[in-house]
Amino acid sequence: MGTIVSYISPANTGRTDDPDPATGLTSRDKYLVRTSWARIMKNSTDSGVALLTLFLKNHPEYLDLFPFKNVPLDQLSTNKRFRAHCSSVIYALASIVDALNDNELLIQLLLKTGSSHISRNVKAKGFKDLQDATVELFSAVMKPDELEAWKKTLEVAFGVILKGLVEGEKL
Question: Residue 13 falls within a domain, yes or no?
Fold first, then answer.
């Protein structure tokens, strides 16, 4: 009985000795990702704006890939088209968080993300740079253990996204 209560209790912060065979993420990693993600989602669009603004400040060369490419960088945060895209990016990340316990769904979501960006001329380096920007942003707002869990999660996620990108390019 105690095991069941501790498993479903809100105080359960996950085990560190149970890596998922497909992802390598432990229960603790997933717990930390979910709880820290809840804070990001409190202001989801603004979080997306912060992420994409950082990404484009670090890599302005990617601005040409977007439909808002003619908007000056310092005006993007108020541009509705940019904000809509930022919201889409955050909800794509939310779908990853939501699927952490369903590996088949997670893999399909990530493969689709990679393949759907081929027509937009997004290359592997662009995804890697977005991963780096995500870690940079999260490092400013998360505790060290949360950030480490996110690094592991993003490594897995972007690895599958890149696989979708490569496989889709072969078609």
Answer: no
